[in-house]
Amino acid sequence: MNSLTLRTKSCVRSIEHWLSRRLGHSSVTLAFRAMPWLQTARASLDAHDAHYRIEKALDEERQYIQRQWGLDAQNAPGFALGPLVEHHPGVRALAVDIGAGTGWVAGWLARQFELVHAIEPSRAAVTIAKRILAASNIEWHVGMAEDMLARLTLPSPALFVTGCVLSHLRDSETRTICRLVSQKAPRGSLLCFAECWGEEHHQPIWHVRSQDWWRSALPGWQLEFLSCNIEVPGRYKGIHGVKSS
Ligand SMILES: C[S@@+](CC[C@H](N)C(=O)[O-])C[C@H]1O[C@@H](n2cnc3c(N)ncnc32)[C@H](O)[C@@H]1O
Q1: 60 lines ligand 1 (CB under 6 A)
Q2: Nearest to 160 by CA among 205, 225, 105
Q3: Do the Cβ atoms of 158 and 189 come closer than 8 Å?
Q4: Domain 41-243 classified CATH 3.40.50.150?
Q5: For 94, 120, 128, 137, which has the most beta carbons within 10 A of its beta carbon?
């Protein structure tokens, strides 16, 4: 999770606590529970895009990418992209990074795969990524994954990656993205979602969905839910999958 996400979440939590002390816990909790359903389809894009547009964004993102690579973040317990790729040496032609941001995952994938499709709706993020990453085998697609996935041609098994993207989106967009991933993925494809799962929990731009929810959104995939506990008991991060039909 990047620093913007952490700041947004802690800001929402502080506002909720402040209002709870003044207006009473139950009414405020109820209001905040309703807020996720008022979230728009662009809410995550708008929040992230505002960050990518600030003057020091290029420097901050350059440092962020170096930090992620330095920490071997691709091997982090709630992602485990490195081990998944290593276990499937036959899938090396195509990778799709959905919600690529400024591209630290795409940059890592470009060293393992022949071609990486990086989908990102923030033009500011893509401009930064192109200034930082030298890889010539990353093809950038500027737009929402709900629109861009349908345009991809994937003739051989591909790896689909999301680095904390779907947990920011509403159920409806997430379902559409999962449906398109399933439609596009040839048998033998892989998925590596650094996304939340566990006891259902929804707050603005932060959604945790149950295993049943993910299974119904991703039919035809053999899913493995990683046991990386986050935030509170019952909440986890990380989903792997192999397309079996
Ligand atoms: C938390 S950031 C993660 C960026 C990157 N994957 C990383 O790990 O640093 C979420 C990204 O999803 C992008 N995003 C928002 N809505 C999207 C959508 N509908 N389709 C694809 N990406 C989206 C945002 O612009 C943002 O760059």
Answers
A1: no
A2: 105
A3: yes
A4: yes
A5: 120
CB 120 within 8 A of CB 147: no
Instruction: Give strand pairing partners of 94.
Output: 115, 158
pTM for this prediction: 0.88
Contacts 24+ apart (CB under 8 A), 53-58: 53/124, 57/124, 57/128, 58/128, 58/131, 58/132
Instruction: Give the Å distance between the CA of 161 and the centre of ligand 1.
Output: 11
- What are the pLDDT digits (tens) for 110-137? 999 999 999 999 999 999 999 999 999 9
- How far is CA 41 from each of CA 67, 150, 165, 172, 176, rounded to the nearest angstrom? 30, 18, 13, 9, 12
Bridge pairing between strands 158-163 and 206-208: unpaired
Alpha carbon of 234 to ligand 1 centroid (Å): 25
The answer to whether 110 and 116 are in contact (CB under 8 A) is: yes
Integer Cα distance of 235 and 78 in angstroms: 11
Residue 37 identity: W
